[in-house]
Protein 1
Amino acid sequence: MQLQDDLTASFAERCYMLLKQIPAGRVTSYKALAKALNSKAYRAVGSAMAKNKDLITTPCHRVVKSNGQVGEYALGSEEKIALLEKEGVKIIDKKVQDFDDLMFRFDT
């Protein structure tokens, strides 16, 4: 992927570029996003999501924990749940249902 070869893009920018590939109704995990960037820095992915200033075009609400738990969101976890449910993702007890089926697989 050209993105991984772009040394001028910051880690956060590379996260956002990948994140924009995830269609509505699908999710990824912090760990999977880090792996797609050839990294183990899933906490850095979380930090990048927390610093996202463009929640509309960079849908960080689609990034959840590896166990399917919704996790945090800049506008609060309830808003994250509302956005995911609006896209057709079923959430029960703050956990994505059918997580494995909804998991977006990056082409790496």
Note: Residues 25 and 101 are 11 Å apart (CA to CA).
Protein 2
Amino acid sequence: MVSKIKTCVFISGNGSNLKSIIKSSRDCNFPAKIDLVISNNINSNGLLIGKKNGIPSRYIKYVNQFDFERKAINELRKKGIKFLILAGFMKVLSKKFIYNFRYKIVNIHPSLLPKFKGLNTHKRVLKDKEKYSGCTVHFVSDSLDSGQIISQKKILINKNETEDSLKNKVLKLEHRLYSQSIISIFR
């Protein structure tokens, strides 16, 4: 059994990666214990997933970056959080915030970085007629989607692929890759 690091997951949306990570965290050998979920979206399904799993789940209104981060840091300190997982968190964190958690924040992005950083990834992948897509787990740095890559997984794009079908295929990869990547960080 490993000693588990106190972890918070930041979310904005549906919470499917959160659900997958919570499931993995129940394994005694998984290195992270999810002690807190924070969302900037009051309607995030991920808040409900956290609560259903007995995890304190907080909505922090995003008025501006400074205010959000100040409130988030307060919550993180109260819980003694040492590791952050961004799982569909759709806001950029400041350099100061990132510096406070240097190499202790990870993110998953739905492309094979360094290609297709930022938003509208699947649309851009299809527009550029890429043969492959996938997902990347990386450490968060102060440049968008540019931190050190931890791992990647790729899939072949079918000729009749749509944005929705590609999104769903990549999301299934994310659910497997994210937990595997978190394990690899602490080996």
Note: The mean pLDDT is 96.
